[in-house]
Amino acid sequence: MKAAVFISHGSRTDEGNKQFITFIRQVLDRTPLPIVVYGFLENARPTVMEAVENCIRRGATEIFVIPVLLLPGIHANLDIPQILEKAQQKHPGIGILYGKPLGINGIMVDIIEERLRSKGYTGSRDEAILLVGHGSRDPQAAVEFETLAGIMRRKTAARVETAYITTSPFYAGKCSQLLSSQVRKVYLLPYLLFTGGFAVKMEENAQEISRLNPRNEVIVCEPVGFDGRLQELLVNRAVEAGIL
């Protein structure tokens, strides 16, 4: 019997985890398998191992695990696979397959463009877009993030830069740098699913940078978040793997 497990990173806030659960339950309803569950890498339960073993208890013999993550990185490439390897060793008779993160695609680009337009982005030459990622120790994540920036440059003909919350280049410094280079407006776009304290801090930093640069403006866009269009992407991941 086939099963699917959708794995989220997990948020430090109950509200963030509730947002994911509301979102993913709609994905579960669209996945025509007898067993479809979700789990969290950290900060919430069920854990990855608990989700997998739940499927096995219910009779699953083939389990496809789908990471609900925006980009490849340590979590997608190392942390989750290590847990699945332990699960495979514990249950050698069960087939455990692993999918890909959401990645860069047309739906992601559409969401970003919508977030920008909703905050008044016009494409003027004195406007810049700063895509802000969480940051990862895995260089593959940065490579893919730069790929996204390149797509946005071609689509908007605008100045599009990347920066991060937890790794260099940090977004506050990159934003100040842009404002010192004849850019009048910087649109900060959080490339994040969960936000929590990060969003609050980003708003505070944007206000402080604007205060120090009174002739300029820093605008914080809505994050990618759990946009409904991502549900289709997750179902497609199962289709690509041949489990549906």
Structure description:
The chain has 244 residues and is α/β, with parallel strands linked by helices. It folds into 2 domains: 2-102 and 226-240, 3-Layer(aba) Sandwich (Rossmann fold); 106-220, 3-Layer(aba) Sandwich (Rossmann fold). The chain has helices at 14-30, 48-57, 74-90, 106-118, 139-156, 171-179, 197-212, 229-240; strands at residues 2-8, 35-40, 62-68, 95-98, 127-133, 159-164, 185-190, 217-220. The strands form 2 sheets. Strands 2-1-3-4 form a 4-stranded parallel beta sheet, with helices on both faces. It has a 4-stranded parallel beta sheet with strand order 6-5-7-8, sandwiched between helices. α1 packs across α8 (229-240). The termini are close together. The mean pLDDT is 92.
Which terms would index this structure?
alpha/beta; single chain; elongated; 244 residues; 46% helix; 4-stranded parallel beta sheet; Rossmann fold
Q: Structural class of the secondary elements?
A: alpha/beta
List the uncertain runs: none
Helicity level: 40-55%
- Structural domain tally: 2
Question: Which range does the strand content fall in?
Answer: 15-25%
> Mind telling me the C-alpha Rg?
19 Å
Number of helices: 8
- The beta-strand count equals 8
Order of strands across the main sheet: 2-1-3-4
CATH class of the largest domain: Alpha Beta
For the record, give the distance between the C-alpha atoms at the N and C termini, rounded to a whole number: 12 Å
Determine the mean pLDDT.
92
Give the CATH architecture of the largest domain: 3-Layer(aba) Sandwich
CATH overall fold name of the largest domain: Rossmann fold
